[in-house]
Amino acid sequence: CGTAEGSFTMPLNAVSNEVRSVALRASEATAGLRLLSAAQRNACVQAYGSSLPGAAEAIQRAAEDDAAHARAHGLAPRVLQALVVDRATLEGKARLAAPLAALPDPLGQVESTWIRPNGLKIERLRVPIGVVAILAEYDVGAVIDAVLLGLKAGDAVIVHAGPIMFRTCQAVMRALAAVPLPPALRVAPVQFVPHHGSHARQELLTQRGRVDVAIPVGSAAWIHAAEAV
């Protein structure tokens, strides 16, 4: 949908290098996340949620720009509806951050225990996944939810936004990037791919040594394109 900042102005090898750098930073962030207590992670969840209403004007402008391009390209009403982001939407996400933070810590819980014939005791514990990449086509709300849930679970999150909502996600990520973080987090646990094209998406999906799980969110065609890599 039109050209956006970080789109098709760079050589493909430069785009690949930037995507690899994003994946590396996210991988490095997992080390800092492991040092945080549950209380510190919960504080990050609330701080990220609280940062959104303060950036509502910039985020809403970006969403309106994305929606205008989507309408010009004749996209479906459901897509246009998903692109709507206003102050009420962001305030709702901020309110959800507090009860999310208040949920029991999912990490370190023993899911099962068994004893081997030789007497060795084995326990299955809940641990962070590591780095979760969210490849989102047009649902900004789902991106915000994924970021907050990822932090709650101790995971670093990479956001790759498609061209339909690139400007909106970029504005959201700028708001999150301004949030002060604990000293243990020398690298921000939320990273943003500054390119919305298919080459950037494919490059991100090849970072298997740094990206542990990739979750495509969007239409069937969008999800199929991610699964085909």
Structural notes for this entry:
The chain has 9 helices and 6 strands, in the order αααααβββαβαβαβα. It is of the alpha/beta class. The chain has a 4-stranded parallel sheet, with helices on both faces. A two-stranded antiparallel ribbon has the order 1-2. β1 (110-115) and β2 (121-125) form a beta hairpin. The longest helix has 24 residues, at 12-35. Residues 1-8 have low confidence and may be disordered.
SSE arrangement:
Elements: H1 12-35, H2 38-54, H3 56-72, H4 77-82, H5 87-102, E1 110-115, E2 121-125, E3 131-136, H6 140-152, E4 156-161, H7 166-177, E5 190-192, H8 198-205, E6 213-217, H9 220-227
Parallel strand pairs: 3-4, 3-6, 4-5
Antiparallel strand pairs: 1-2
Helix pairs in contact: 1-8, 2-5, 2-6, 3-7, 5-6
Number of helical segments with 4 or more residues: 9
Distance between the termini: 23 Å
Strand content: 5-15%
Order of helices and strands: HHHHHEEEHEHEHEH
* Cα radius of gyration in angstroms: 19 Å
Shape: globular
Summary tags:
single chain; 229 residues; alpha/beta; four-stranded parallel β-sheet; two-stranded antiparallel ribbon; 6 strands
In short:
Helices cover 53% and strands 14% of the residues. The chain is of the alpha/beta class and 229 residues long.
